[in-house]
Specification:
Order of helices and strands: EEEHEEEHEEHE
Number of helices: 3
Number of strands: 9
Strand content: 35-45%
Largest sheet: 6 strands, mixed
Structural class: alpha+beta
Shape: globular
Strand order of the largest sheet: 4-6-5-7-8-9
Distance between the termini: 55 Å
Radius of gyration: 18 Å
């Protein structure tokens, strides 16, 4: 039976935000692409494989950092937009490279809708969304702000098309 030799990640289409794991079977030279399929019935992942179980917002508690707006899709007409941001990411695609495999394990398909920056001041309870991603383009900051408002209900949250 063929065995997996090398596994790497390559960006299929940066603008579409699609991350496709690729590799080959040892000795065969035949390529393969890994794809998260739907979880089996009764498995632990089937419970977690509900869109409502995916948190809408996960961002750093303070600071200015890159963020992306991601569409997590279960079926053609079932999706949820989520916000992910962290100062640990040097580039926007580093955030997507972390989120996408997590979502694929749950049977979802992800598409990055764009990015920008978030300035989060938890002491003053203020969040500002601005800027853009060179690789993914500008996220719809109005959508991002609506998602943030559902998580940070007592915050003053604003957005602008300013780059800084």
């Amino acid at each position: 039976a063929p065995r997996l030799c090398v596994f790497g990640l390559s960006l299929g289409s940066r603008s579409a935000g699609l991350l496709r794991p690729r590799g080959h079977f040892r000795g065969s030279g035949r390529p393969f692409a890994l794809r998260g399929g739907p979880p089996e019935r009764g498995s632990a992942m089937a419970v977690a494989g509900q869109l409502t179980s995916v948190p809408e917002v996960e961002i750093d508690p303070d600071g200015t950092f890159k963020y992306i707006l991601v569409r997590v899709q279960q079926e053609a007409d079932k999706y949820r937009d989520i916000v992910r941001g962290t100062a640990a990411a040097e580039f926007h695609n580093h955030i997507f490279e972390k989120v996408n495999p997590e979502m694929e394990k749950l049977g979802f398909v992800c598409k990055c809708l764009g990015g920008g920056k978030i300035e989060h001041n938890s002491k003053e309870k203020k969040i500002r969304v601005f800027g853009l991603s060179t690789g993914y383009g500008k996220a719809d900051h109005a959508v991002t702000v609506e998602l943030l408002k559902r998580t940070y209900k007592d915050y003053e949250i604003s957005w602008s098309d300013d780059k800084k």
